[in-house]
UniProtKB/TrEMBL annotation:
InterPro entries: TPR-like_helical_dom_sf (IPR011990). Residues 50-77, 117-168 are annotated as: Disordered. It comes from the Bacteria. This is Tetratricopeptide repeat protein. The lineage of its organism: Bacteria, Pseudomonadati, Planctomycetota, Planctomycetia, Pirellulales.
Length: 744
């Protein structure tokens, strides 16, 4: 993960990834197609791990028109950690990784390579006398509460007159004031971006040594200042940009936190790829405390002070548990306060908002990500998905296709694009089923060679694609016209579970993947008649829910988890209904309704949500009406269902199926005496089926039931004319189809 920067990075007291002195950090321009990330100077070496070896085989069988594709059983998942490394805990590592925070190797890290460390300037540097440098952006940022301003020293005391008649030499008042202030001025008070260079010069005088980098940049070394043996100050255009402190002797972490007023700030642990602790970063203050080279973790032998940066907040967010939605969102907002055009911060924000069902906000964040600094094809792919959520499937397919076919895009992103392309084609209807299969298989072909990539972000992204594509192929086979469905679906599901187990074990993935697998497994089996008992899966879903719930008290995540658990139980309802296990189905429907109700808090109900809720409530109502012959109970479920199935956002989606559902609801409302509502629902259902018939004449037979029902309803109301009209219309359709049966 990398943060984008709107302006050039200031000079830092750092070493680069090769442990060589850094003279200047330059940022490469952003490219529209998978940009090369800039090498940014940092106070520690940031690098991705190189843990893993390539797969021995990545062959994946192509989809065939005659039989469903099956996973290549020879494909193995083999992730080998570096020798001596241990798998880090979930909260240990994030997208940014640190190889090491090094002991001081040169006195002046900013010196050019091959030159002396420090040199006395031929002409003493004149103190800056112009306006004070502007305050740090964090001073005005509403989300930062921990900005510390330097306190002025106490006023100098007036010397007492001597008792004897011989007076000592008179010391000028200005000199006495300077000496008094020098005694009270502390290194702990220096704040880059706030403390002025003039103030340092007036208190400490000339530095022991200096090194000029260029016309605007230089480093000053002061020795034996208070508690510190060395104080190195990096200056750019007469502004202090960073301070490197070496204590005279090791200090306690508690003392450092008190002196810098860090006790109210949550630090982020800095770790190497194996999870070994290397230090702490305090983002609100821009302070880094590396782990002492020798001694306990509570000892401090080096301190780096810089202005707060977006990158430091991104590091803390990446170190947090993936389940801590609220705290991660807060860190991303703090990063955005520092760098308003950080594409990665906006992208990560959008991902969480989408999980919470706040898709209008998620789309706006995704839009800012695609127009921000560091924008990538992956950001555009996510925005495309949100375009589909808003109802524009055709545009989503077109945009996803462009990314998938762009050879300049990184392979792991292209694999993800092909997987998303297949998902969108599956949404387009049965006629696109085989195309969906082809793109899901293509996603596996591209991703398979990357599962042991040395770049852990690439490796993890590839494995996630393999999980998603395998589960998607199970859905494709279940909904398409394929033979050997049961056998093939099980193979794809089992292969996806192999990758999930690997990600949980080796890649710090959470149990959310297992919840998704249970949901997709039930969904696949709900699309066709199979002798499958969902009892064991239901127990696992509830168990997984309880386990995830116990891992965090984050209310945002709890809300998302309730919604996703309700989705999973809804699929079990559909299976039990198809198996004629009506009591079990009704009991599960009540459970699913409770979970979904909790997940609806703060959620924008989208198209897919309306379909899920409408279908769930209709199924429960149908069991009450048909199997239980309890129309009063059925109406209770139908009242909830019709609000979703008639929502304007559905427009032309699933016209015939929604129409048939409304016709069935009309019968129950009619039966309990609500005749007006019964007729209205039947008429509305008939109109939807007629619209579907206009697109597909083969659906005309579905009009017979609502026409017959309306004819009977109007006959009982005494409207013989309308009854005769509907009877004639139904009979005309029967004659055209050669069917004289009557169905209500």
């Amino acid at each position: 993960m990398a943060c984008g920067w709107a302006i050039a990075e200031p000079i830092r007291l750092t070493l680069d990834e090769s442990d060589q002195p850094v003279s200047e950090a330059k940022i490469a321009p952003v490219q529209h197609t998978e940009p090369v990330q800039p090498i940014i100077s940092r106070p520690f070496s940031l690098s991705l791990t190189a843990d893993g070896e390539p797969l021995e085989t990545s062959a994946v069988r192509q989809a065939s028109a005659e039989e469903p594709p099956t996973p290549n059983q020879d494909t193995s998942v083999s992730v080998r950690a570096p020798e001596g490394a241990q798998v880090a805990q979930p909260a240990a590592n994030g997208p940014l990784r640190v190889y090491g925070i090094h002991q001081e190797k040169i006195d002046n890290p900013a010196a050019l390579q091959g030159t002396s460390r420090f040199s006395e300037p031929e002409v003493p540097l004149n103190p800056a006398t112009k306006a004070q440098p502007p305050a740090s952006p964090m001073a005005d940022a509403p989300l930062s509460r921990f900005t510390q301003t330097p306190s002025a020293g106490p006023p100098a005391e007036t010397p007492s007159p001597a008792v004897n008649t011989k007076l000592p030499p008179v010391v000028p008042l200005t000199q006495a004031t300077k000496e008094a202030e020098a005694k009270t001025f502390s290194v702990w008070q220096i704040l880059p971006g706030q403390t002025s260079l003039t103030e340092i010069e007036s208190q400490w005088g000339k530095p022991a040594q200096t090194r000029r980098i260029d016309q605007d940049k230089h480093v000053r070394l002061y020795e034996q200042q208070g508690d510190f043996a060395k104080v190195e100050i990096a200056v750019e255009k007469d502004q202090i940009v960073s301070v490197f402190l070496i204590p005279a002797k090791s200090m306690s972490l508690e003392l450092v936190e008190q002196k810098f007023d860090l006790t109210k700030i949550e630090p982020a642990a800095v770790r190497d790829p194996s999870g070994r602790h290397l230090g702490k970063i305090y983002p609100e203050r821009g302070i880094l405390i590396p782990q002492a080279a020798e001694g306990s973790p509570l000892e401090v032998d080096r301190i780096i002070v810089q202005t707060p940066s977006a990158e430091s907040f991104m590091i803390r967010a990446s170190n947090r548990s993936p389940l801590d939605f609220r705290d991660r969102l807060n860190d991303y907002q703090l990063a955005i306060a520092q760098e308003p055009y950080s594409a990665e911060a906006w992208y990560q924000t959008s991902l969480i908002l989408h999980r919470l069902g706040r898709d209008t906000e998620a789309f706006e964040a995704a839009r800012k990500a695609t127009s921000g600094v560091g924008s990538s094809a992956e950001h555009r792919l996510h925005r495309t998905l949100l375009i589909v959520v808003q109802g524009n499937l055709a545009s989503g397919i077109q945009n996803t296709q462009q990314i998938a076919e762009d050879v300049t895009v990184a392979n792991h992103v292209r694999a993800k694009a092909h997987c998303q392309w297949g998902d969108l084609l599956q949404m387009a209807g049965p006629q696109k089923n085989r195309e969906a299969v082809q793109h899901h298989v293509k996603a596996i072909e591209i991703a398979s060679p990357l599962v042991n990539d040395t770049n852990q972000d690439v490796r993890r992204a590839a494995k996630q694609v393999l999980v998603d594509a395998h589960m998607a192929l199970a859905i494709d086979i279940a909904t398409g016209d394929w033979e050997k469905k049961e056998q093939t679906i099980n193979q794809w599901l089992l292969r996806s579970k192999v990758y999930i187990d690997d990600m949980v074990t080796n890649e710090q993935a959470t149990g959310e993947l297992r919840m998704a697998w249970l949901t997709k497994s039930l969904m696949a089996r709900s699309f066709y008649n199979a002798p499958f008992d969902p009892g064991d899966a239901i127990d696992q879903i509830i168990g997984q829910y309880r386990e995830l719930l116990s891992k965090t008290d984050d209310p945002f995540f709890h809300r998302a988890l309730e919604w996703e658990t309700g989705q999973a139980l809804s699929q079990a309802v559909f299976i039990e209904h198809a198996r004629d296990q009506h009591d079990s189905a009704l009991k599960l429907a009540e459970q699913a309704k409770a979970f979904l109700k909790g997940g609806l808090a703060g959620r924008e109900v989208g198209i897919a949500d309306h379909l899920l809720l409408g279908n769930l409530y209709f199924r429960a109502g149908a069991i009450c009406a048909v199997q239980k012959q309890d129309h009063a109970a059925a109406v209770g479920w139908y009242e909830m269902a019709m609000n979703h199935l008639t929502d304007p956002s559905l427009q032309s989606i699933m016209l015939d199926r929604r129409g048939e559902s409304l016709v069935s609801m009309g019968v129950s409302f009619w039966s309990v005496g609500n005749r007006e509502q019964g007729i209205a629902l039947t008429e509305q259902g008939k109109s939807l089926i007629e619209a579907a018939t206009g697109q597909n004449a083969a659906l005309q037979k579905k009009l017979i039931v609502p026409l017959d029902n309306l004819a009977e309803m109007y006959r009982e109301l005494g409207n013989a004319q309308k009854s005769a009209q509907y009877t004639a219309s139904a009979q005309k359709i029967r004659e055209s189809l050669g069917d004289n049966t009557i169905s209500r």
